[in-house]
Each structure stands twice: as structure tokens, then as C-alpha cells.
Predict the structure of NAD(P)-dependent oxidoreductase.
Amino acid sequence: MTDSNSDRAAAQKPFRRLLLTGAAGNLGTQLRGALAAWADVVRVTDIAPLGEVADHEEAAIVDLADEAAVHALLEGVDAVIHLGGISVEAPFEDLLEANIRGLYNLYSAAQKQGVKRVVYASSNHAVGFHPVTEVVDIDAPLRPDSLYGVTKCFGESLSRYYFDRFGLETVCLRIGSSFEQPKNPRMLVTYLSYRDFIELVRCSLFTNRVGHAIVYGVSDNRTKWVDNTKAAFLGFRPQDSSVQFEHLFRVAAPTADLDDPTQRFQGGAFVLAGPMEPKR
Amino acid sequence: MTDSNSDRAAAQKPFRRLLLTGAAGNLGTQLRGALAAWADVVRVTDIAPLGEVADHEEAAIVDLADEAAVHALLEGVDAVIHLGGISVEAPFEDLLEANIRGLYNLYSAAQKQGVKRVVYASSNHAVGFHPVTEVVDIDAPLRPDSLYGVTKCFGESLSRYYFDRFGLETVCLRIGSSFEQPKNPRMLVTYLSYRDFIELVRCSLFTNRVGHAIVYGVSDNRTKWVDNTKAAFLGFRPQDSSVQFEHLFRVAAPTADLDDPTQRFQGGAFVLAGPMEPKR
Amino acid sequence: MTDSNSDRAAAQKPFRRLLLTGAAGNLGTQLRGALAAWADVVRVTDIAPLGEVADHEEAAIVDLADEAAVHALLEGVDAVIHLGGISVEAPFEDLLEANIRGLYNLYSAAQKQGVKRVVYASSNHAVGFHPVTEVVDIDAPLRPDSLYGVTKCFGESLSRYYFDRFGLETVCLRIGSSFEQPKNPRMLVTYLSYRDFIELVRCSLFTNRVGHAIVYGVSDNRTKWVDNTKAAFLGFRPQDSSVQFEHLFRVAAPTADLDDPTQRFQGGAFVLAGPMEPKR
Amino acid sequence: MTDSNSDRAAAQKPFRRLLLTGAAGNLGTQLRGALAAWADVVRVTDIAPLGEVADHEEAAIVDLADEAAVHALLEGVDAVIHLGGISVEAPFEDLLEANIRGLYNLYSAAQKQGVKRVVYASSNHAVGFHPVTEVVDIDAPLRPDSLYGVTKCFGESLSRYYFDRFGLETVCLRIGSSFEQPKNPRMLVTYLSYRDFIELVRCSLFTNRVGHAIVYGVSDNRTKWVDNTKAAFLGFRPQDSSVQFEHLFRVAAPTADLDDPTQRFQGGAFVLAGPMEPKR
Amino acid sequence: MTDSNSDRAAAQKPFRRLLLTGAAGNLGTQLRGALAAWADVVRVTDIAPLGEVADHEEAAIVDLADEAAVHALLEGVDAVIHLGGISVEAPFEDLLEANIRGLYNLYSAAQKQGVKRVVYASSNHAVGFHPVTEVVDIDAPLRPDSLYGVTKCFGESLSRYYFDRFGLETVCLRIGSSFEQPKNPRMLVTYLSYRDFIELVRCSLFTNRVGHAIVYGVSDNRTKWVDNTKAAFLGFRPQDSSVQFEHLFRVAAPTADLDDPTQRFQGGAFVLAGPMEPKR
Amino acid sequence: MTDSNSDRAAAQKPFRRLLLTGAAGNLGTQLRGALAAWADVVRVTDIAPLGEVADHEEAAIVDLADEAAVHALLEGVDAVIHLGGISVEAPFEDLLEANIRGLYNLYSAAQKQGVKRVVYASSNHAVGFHPVTEVVDIDAPLRPDSLYGVTKCFGESLSRYYFDRFGLETVCLRIGSSFEQPKNPRMLVTYLSYRDFIELVRCSLFTNRVGHAIVYGVSDNRTKWVDNTKAAFLGFRPQDSSVQFEHLFRVAAPTADLDDPTQRFQGGAFVLAGPMEPKR
């Protein structure tokens, strides 16, 4: 019958069901299309409206801080691409709910539901207080540049624990700046093209074993602050570069203000962004 | 007059006012006596009763999750010895309040009140998933062995951020097992005598500059899983050893059960203790 | 006369006489053609029939465990490409004769005959018990994945000794999987094209000084488990990649069986292949 | 009854049966006494006469190259202290039988008989071609200084394989010079007192988990070429020093003959001792 | 007016005034053209005649050992490209004046005049006594191969001091062999094309913050002795390679003379060039 | 005869003739006595008066910048202890003569006269710009804290060159603060007792081979900024500690002025001492 035919066709996709959190965001939107080819069913979720839902998609509006809802969300899922939560500096109270409590809910549910792997959107802001005159590899000490960055360190520690304790694999993507194009000179260094981002997720999902991996999400830009040599087992080879965007920014002599932290540290403006007062 | 005389005498102590959190606990009780010599005023706090309060002490019952109370607690404080919070595996919800929200409150208040230094009771459980056949130094990757351990990693990241951002110094003490005597063979390795613990706090408070430091809190035991070489600038030289307690445990052939995580990893029983279900 | 003319022509080749062991094997066959351009005379040897012998070739059927025969074989040789011996898991007794006694005979004879350099076919199975989630460089600790791998470690140690003791140079090629094309997904990572293999031998022979070098023999595949940075003085820059063969294998979700050693370790099926019982 | 009483008493010793190979040698003789306290039964073996056999001992004259005899030897054994084989430079043929074939027989039998741990007498000659102006730790690259040293490298690789493959634990003791007293100035650096040797074996047997460990066997001599920091999990703390023997050697200006390998390398006279011709 | 118009145009160039020392030399001549695009005014200096002076150039014949002249030379300068001094082995007395006293004068003046950055022509001869069988990164220990190399080490130390003390930034270019084409086989490894040299200077001048950086100046040659990974923050990606010149040198078997220092060490002939006697 | 008798007696001392430069200084004076036991003849030199000259001594007033005089001074010398030159911050011109030209003269003469070894008084000020919250080992990057420190870096590079080029061995002593007792709290960390200083020189002279070695000259003080592990082949084991002097300095709360370089860096007051203007 038609059903069973489409079932067979569907069965040829590598994953049965993938969960994409933060599906309404910038990167979630980019990724949604690609996932169709990788899974029979793509469950998409966000706290914001998810737009048009495709045939192969299941949509759910869920607050990650809602434990019961998150456990339901993870049912029947093979693997998760977790882009949800807050991805900029914010008051601690907000970060606590979205990036700490929410992440715990996600991992607790994933483990209980037998999920095998999480691709976790960490951030270069987990190491943003390293100076711009250093190249950090994936073993570099954590140097969060913001409370947001601190919550990303939390996520890397929590997922490490779930791997060591239960074998639940995670790839932590320390994503740089993934936009249509760099918005300022710093982003020439941290730029990750959408195409490279999707490829990075692909590598993270399909590499047979990843353990608990950390990898920097940057394109093959001319200037590099990060070194992915030790993550080469993931097979991520970026195809794009920010060179094409260098003309957007005026070539200028260095602004060698030795005391400006936003110029000294890899995190850029983030290093001064926090801590933010709660909106009361 | 008498007052001004005693003022002068008091003024000869190195610190004006120290804050000790977790003052009612095992280690807090040990430390309370020593602090009298180091500060004119010792503010002691806990959520449990604090017992008899000495002349040089100020006592306050405070829940660290209570933001306003914590800000009041930090007023006029030179330096903090933070032993408060939960120090064993516990349901995530409890750890979130005590060790995450509570710690944020502490640092947020410390920074605003101009506190110069925090001595933070981290734990060897921040790296407890390293195998017992390795020796970890202070740059070893984080490997929390429990949700409790994850919260200690959070504390190390948060305090790093406050140092990089504001210059608020912290010494993270990765305390082993500080009891009257070791309670099991594993503690022969992780034992920290009370005397050595107090000396470690002394070094952490009085070393002129510490930046953001990490140091293992263990006595000079025969067997070592940790290496403090890179923390030698703190001047901590333990005087005690667990050798005197080795006779307490029967000498036995190795229990080489290759699959028992509590024997394979430095964290011992902690590695299986979590995650705990909330008490409902 | 004609003879002396051709002598002069021949004399323009860089080497006077090269010895190729294992010349009847898969890689030996590939290499035989290339050697014609590099040496006036190529002495080819194997325990198996060597097929048609070209004008510039000298053929000899020799068992490497035969000490006297090996000493004769090395006479008048400038350099050796040693592909001989057993290159898969085998009973220890067989490995002992071919890869241990045979190798000792080769080095003992080479040293006595004044040979200057050996290009030694070591194997990635000398380090095959490293997990697939690590990238190993040429200083990584030895982790043989089979008795075969142990004999390759022996070869690396023995050749190191002959270099330190007598200055006899060796390049140890830790060859991955050099076949017409990858035979399974693991070989997408370990694939070494024939062209790149020949280039690797060329670099090993012609680099002016190599000391005792170790280098991984893999093409520029997308996924990498090895890092040749410290061997860059050999000038090996692979031209091929297994990307063209990825379509041969069905894209599938990870088979995250945490307990399957053939998936966890770089050596793949080798890690379970041994020890083999002798055929009696 | 008497029997059952003594059985019970015996049962209080940590090991049921230990096997000591090389029991008739210098170090074997030293150790034999100590083993009485650690095991109900001590099986002692050598190719040389074993002298008087104590009540708790089982004696067997065995050639390690005799596969069947070795398998019988390992029956019912908890752990092995393997001092057997050749411990000086010798013709390769002899080393092959004693230190390669013999060692394989030992491990093959140990694995099949369910032995849990081997304490293996490796040697500083596995790294003897490191210069005397370096301090090597346990991860230093192998640099055998003799064919004997090459066989010790073989032993370290083989035992690593048996650990990774079967979980059979080994501690490789890179023993320096363990004699009544140093016989030359070099031995002031490599001296291991008999008392410290016995303690090193004790640590190797009784540490609960050792995995595959490497440790240098030297006393706390004034001058050090080795660094055991990473082996501190074994708890070996030497009590003796060669300082008491320094007076035996005339204080002299350095013999700075830059070209004398026996002065340049840690292996001393070993670096020139081999390869030895077979005695024919 | 014309003046003010050209002023405005000029003002659009990134630098106001650059100083180029050694402007009459081989590399200075190459660079002079490129600088026109980067600065309104290029001050060129040498002790040799400077040829035709362009409109945007200011020329000055100055001996760097002349303190007062050097201070005048640095007035009004934004950044310096320092190619001046002696760039080959020479009698110590000459090196002392040009490369030590002269360099001190330059930095002393630069600091007093508020110069922000120096691009300093160091040399691979600062590390030329590393063997050709090693790949050195930018943290490799200094191993000068000549008195000239010693003065380059001095320059790296002096510039480090001026950065740590005053924040005056320097990029030390460890230039290989920058000529029209390689002159001998060694230069196939150390070759730096003129185009890549100019790009390296461009990166060194325009990277926003460089601190005190070290980078090897070599093109993307097939064989590499150096590793610039840790300098990737400078964005230097060489476009050229010496491969096109390999045909110039006859392919030959290795000249494995173990005792020839010019073949053993990266510095080549420099390692025997000094110390030179003064010309008297 | 009497002469020949005393010759024979003298011949029993390890060295025939030692040269001590800087013999009139603080440390030179300390050392002079000890040298009597180590050499038949001790040649002492300084630019200042040398006081009473003992029977076994040869005294010479020499300016190290006087090339001819230095060459004469080195005649017939086995080994040199070079304490001469300037040991505090000074105008560059003075440092250039004493510590650069003077040092070159010394090494040039030593090499020509066949001297075998130099014990060179380098300084912790060669690495004084490392922060006080780090522990530096002997491979730590050079971070001179003064022009004086830069000249000590020069000395380490120059002596490295003479070793690599000619085999002339040097031990660079990075001496801390060697006085009767510490003069300020910083010196509690850098204190080197006179007894330990003399022992350090003894080790440097009598260790059979030293190559080009670097070692920190500090006693076994409680707080350490340096790590001599890699120099353990010298056998230096300090006997003294500054603990006995801690009572001299008032125990105070940290002076956590984040911007005071003299508190932040190991070099203490040196980091601000230079560059000094010449005395004109």
C-alpha cells in the first residue's frame, strides 16, 4: 500500500527521528531543510512559533525549563541537535532557566529515553577570555567571557558527565559567528558559513563514534584563533572562508588600545556585556 | 581608652573582616578557631545553627539562594572562605539552588561589595571520572563524576569569569576527604588532615597574588592521584600523611573487577551516586 | 661501447642498487615499477614467486628467517624498502620467524653491509588500540592492537636502536589501508592510495636526512585519526583522498554499540583478531 | 584440625598463590623472603637451581621457551612477578628465546589461566639511549640501548596489548642498578636498594588497580635521570639513597669526552655492548 | 586646494607614516613598492644609497649605531619595518654595533616616540641548530647557529622586554631564504617568495593586535621544518611554493654523512660560518 | 724534591686550575673559600680589588671588555665560574660592555684556550616577566624583566651556541636572591642560601656531563615560582629554606593592587627599574 511503500522509502533514511531544538532561531531555520534528508521524522521545537510544518516534521512548542514537557519531547528520538536556549548575554536568572535547568532537563530526559547522541551548540564564548594573540585548541582551559559563556561551560561539563556516566555521546560545537555575512572585523575571524555549519552538524551526527567531543565551528578563514587538529576524527573540513567579505571593512591601522578588553580578547564585545541586571 | 586600645590591637590582625560560609559544617567548624588569629572580625554563616558565637564573630543564618540576604552578608568583607552549599550528591533541583544560584549570588554580591578574594571549596569530584591509574595536574580536563561535581565545575568557571572580568581573585580548593581519619581505602589517597586543610586556607588567603588558582587539597599521602606542581606559588606544603591510618584497612589482593566504576575512577562511589531523583 | 654507454646512463639514476623485500605482495607489486626510475639496479625479493623480472632487476627468493641468505641479499645495497614479512594477524610462531627474527636478520645484515637507509613498512596497527575519538601524532604511545601490531612495535624499537647505535637511518611507515579502494567504512579513514604510497616511499628515500622517522601512511582523507605535523620534514603531501569512495558505503546512523571494540578502536577488526592459535 | 587451622591462617594472607620467575637470580633471591608474608603459596621458578625450598614454596625448574611447561607453571596463580629471562646484553638468538618467545609464553599462559596481574622486570635500558643531560618521564619515547633493551621494549608492548585486549594488568618496572652497592659512578644515579626494590614490588602487587603502568625503579638518589611523577598512583616512595656510597668513588673533574657514548647516554656501557655475536 | 585635496586622499591610507630600515637591501627593495599603498608617507633608511626617492617617501642615510640619529629617525612614525642591520655571519664587533647596539637604539627611540609596532626581521638562524629531522614550532627553544643567530635571539628578547614593559608590539619574522629562487637544495625548504614575504609583512602590520609574536617566514613548500600553527592569529597563508624550483637541483641519493653539521642542522652552512675573525 | 712532592699532592685535587670571575663580589667572596678544595690553583679576577690572595690563588684585575686581557686570563684554565659583569639594572651602554662584549670575550677566549666548562651566573630576571601566579620550568619562554635580564638572555643564547658549535659546556644558573637573609617578602620566594649556592656550583662543576643546562638557583623555600624537575640530572638538592626568615616580615592581607607590576611579576622591582638613562 501507499503507506507501506512510503514506510520503506522512509526507512532508507539514516535516522528514524531527529529532534531539533531552537528550530525557530537563525541556525535552526538554516538546518531544518537539511534534516529532511537525514531522518524519516524531524521533530522541531522552540518556544517561538515554528512557521510552516513540513510533512516529515513534528512540531512542538516547549519551554525547556518545563521538565515534564521535555521528557515527552525526547520520546522516540534517536539523536538531538540542541540549538535551543539563550545564545547571547542575558540576566543570570534567564540563563539559569534556559541554559542550566533547561539543559539538565534535556540530558536527563535524553538518558532516560535512550537517546544515543546530542549535538550541542556550545560557543566560542566558553573560551572568549583567551587573548586574540593566542590560538586555542580543544583542550585549552575554559575562559568564559560572559555569564552566557559560563552556562556553555556548564553544558560542556554536564554532557561530559552524561557520557562518562551513561555513554550518551555529545559533540559540543563551539560555534563562532554564523550569519549571512560577518557584521564586523572580529567576525572575519569567527565566521562560520551556513553551509559549513550544516556540514559540521552532519559530521557530528554521522561520525560513527564521537565520545564526548569538542570542536570549533569556524569556516576556513584566513585568520584563525582556534585549532581543530585534535577533532579531525569528526571529518569536518570547512569549504568556505570569510575572505570574500574582507572588502566590507575598511583596511585600517591597528587600534592598539592596550586597555580595551573588547580588542584584546577573542570574545570581543561579549567580554564587557555581562553581568546583566535582570529586567524588573 | 579601652576601646581605642582594643581597636589598635585588633588593627594588627591581617584582615579586618573575613566571611566564612558553611560555618556549621564539618570543615567550617575546624576552621572557625583558626580564623580568630587572622581577622578582627569573622562573620560566620550557615543555614544550620551556628552554636556559640565568639566575641570576634558575627553570626548570620542565611540561605545562599536568597539574593538580597547574600548581598547584605558580603558588606564590609575583605575576603570570603566559601564552604557553603551542598557537598555531596543530591537531586539536581537542590544543587541548582545551593551550588549554582547560591554561588552566583555570592560572586555577584562579592563583586559589588568590593571583596578582593574568595577561597572556594571546589572538590576532587570535579575531576573524579579520571581513572585511578592517572595522576592529574591542575590543568587536567574537567571530568565531573556526579551532578555535584558538575556544579563544582560551574563554580570554577564562574569564578574564572569574575577574575577575568573584574579581577576578583579565587583559589579553588579541590578538597579530597577531610575527616578525622580515612573511612575507607580510597580515602588513604584523598585524605586531607584538618591541620593541612587549615594550612591550605591560610596559604590561599595570605599569598599576595593568586589570580584564579586551582589546587588539590590532599595531605602528603603515600599514593597520589594529583600533582600540585603548578600551584607551588601558593606555598602549600602538607605536613600530614595517611600512612598512619593504613593499618586500619586490611591488606588485600587487588579487587581487579575491571567493570566496577567505583574502583576504576578517582571519584570512587560518587561515580555511581547520581543522578538522584528529587525527594517528592 | 654500448655497455659503457648504458653504464653511464644508468649512473645518472640517484641510487645504484635498491633492495625491495616483499616484492611479490600487493604493495611490492605497486612499487616495483616506480623503482626503475630511482636506481640502476633493483633487487627484488620475496618468499613467493616474483613474476617477470625486468632488465634492471635482480630477483631472489629468500626466507628472511634465513640469516645467511639475508646477509647475501644485502650485499651491495644502498637502501632497502622493507615490505616483507607478515602483514596481518597470524600465530605468534609465524610472526616470530617472519617479523622478529627476519627483521633482526635484515638489520644485522644491513649494518654489516654498510646500507645507509631502510624504509620500513610498519603499520597503524602499532597504535590501533587508540580510540577512534582521538587523533594520534607520531609521538603517541604505542598501543598495538594485535600480536602483529606488537611485532611492528618491535620493528620500530629495533630500527631505533640501529640508528642510535650505528647511524643506520630508518623511516617507519605506519601504513593504513593501501588497496585499490576502501573495502569498508573504516578504510575511508585509513585509505592510502597507491599513488600516495609510492610518493611516501619516494620522500622516505630521497629526503637527505631522516634519522629515525615515523610517519603515518594515509591519503588526505576527510576524516583523520592521525597527525603527521611532526613528520613534515619528510615532505610527504598526499594528493588523493577517499572522498571519491564514500558513496560506496551506505550512509547510516551511528552504530553506537559502546562495547564493540572493533568500533571503538582505530585498529578495527584487528583488535579482536588475535592472539591466533598456531595451525597444527 | 591442624590442617584446617593452618588453612585459615594461610587464608589471611592477601594472595593465595604468587609466581616468582627468575627466583634464583640476584633480585629473585632478595624478593623470595618478602613474598612469604604476601601469599599462602609462593611458586618459585628458574632455569638454575633454586636452593632450599621453604614450606610455603613450590619450586619448578622451567625453561620459559618451553610453551607447555610455562602453561603448567601458571596454573592456579593469582599474580606473577616476572624477573626471569636474560638481564644483560646477549646474542640475539639467546634473547629471542628467553625474552621474546619466553615472554610470549608467559603472557599467553597467564591470560588463559586467568592470572590478574604481572609485575614485569623491564629495564632502564629500554630508554638508555636518552642522554644523561635529560630527565625522562614514563612517557618518554623508547630508546633501547642494546638488543637486550629492545627485548624489554618488546615486553612493554606485548604486556600493553594483553592489557588492552584482555584486561590483564602489568606494572613494568624499569629497574636501574639493584645491587648491594653501586659498582661505578653511573650506578650512583641508577642505584635501587634491595629494600626499595622490594617496596616497589609490594606497591605493584597491592595497588588496587594499575592498568598498564610503567615506573622507574631507582632509589631517592641525589642525581636523577628519571621522573616518576606520573606513576605516583602506585605509591612508591623510595626510602634509600646512593648518597652513602658517593665516597666510594674518587671525586674528579668531568671526563668531558664528547664522543664517548658510554658517558653521553643513560645506558652507560650497555650502549656499546651489542649487538653480540652468537657463541658458536 | 591641491595640498588639502591630496591630504584628504592620503588620509585614506591606513598608516600615516611607516619607517622602513634596511630599505636598500634585497628585501627592502622588494617591500618599498608595496608600502606606498599602506601609508601616506614612507620613511626609508639605510646606510647604503637608497636610489630614487618617490613622492611619498622620505629618505635618510642613518647608521643605526648612531643613537641621536636613530631617535630623530623615529619621530612621527606609526610603525617600523626593521630590516636593517647585518643579515649574515660577521665578526662579532660588527654584529655588536649593527644588531645589538643598533637594535637597542631603535627600540629605545621607538618607545620614546610612541611608536606602536615593530615588524622585526629575525631569522631562522635563531633556531638553526635544530636538526633537519625535527619540525620546530614558535615555542621551540632558541638554538642560534651563528653569532648572527645569537644577535637575532637578542632582538627577540629585547623586543619581548619592550612589549612586557611598555606594550610596544613586535612581530618577529623568522625569515628563511627570500630570494628570486632557491640557490641550493636546502633553500627548497626555507624558500620564502617575495610575494609571500610582502604578505607576511602586511599581516604583521594590519592584524589588529599582535602582542609579541613570532612567526616563521616560509612559503608553502613541500618539505617543512617549521610549524606556524600557534601564529595563525596573524592570518599569514603563503600562496607560493618552492615546488616549481625543485627541477633546478639534481635528484640524488641522500648524502648521509652523519658527521657533516651543514647537513644535520636546519641552519645549513651557517652552523660552520662563525665565529668570524674581525677584519683587521 | 719539595716542589714535586707538593705537585703530587696538588694533583690529587679534581681540577688543576679554576677561574673565578667577579671574585670580589658578594657571591664571589662566598665561593672563594670553597674552591680551594676543588682545584690546585684558583685564578680569581675582578675589576675591583681582590683582597688578600691565598697561596693557591692567582689574582688578576681585568676588565672583561678588554679582549686581549681576557684571552690571557683564560690560559691554562680547566673550567670557569663566571660571576663577573653587572648584576643589577644599569644603563644599556654599561651592560653592553660588561655583559655582552665582556661575555663574548670570555667565551671566545674559553673556546680558543680549550676550556671545557663554564658555570654562568644567569638570573631569574631572564624570566622575571612571568606572573607570580605561574610556576616556570627550565623550558619556559624567556621573559626578561629589565635590560639586565635581556643581557642574561643573551648569555644563555651565546653559551648555547658555543655548546652546539664547539661542545663547550655551560650551566646557566638562574640565581634568585642570594644574600645573608631575605630583604623583603619577595625574597622569601627567591632566596638562595650561600650554602645552597655553593652546592649548586659544586654540582655544576662536578656532574660528569652537563651539555648546555639551565637550573634555577633557589633554596627549598615554602613558596616556589620555579620547577627544577628537568634539571634533576645535576643533582642539586637544596638544604636550606627561607622559612626561618618568614617571621621577619609582618603577616598582612594581600595587597591586591591589580595594576602594580612589581607585585604581579616574578621580577619584582626589577620590572620597573629599566631602562635606565646613562650617567652623563
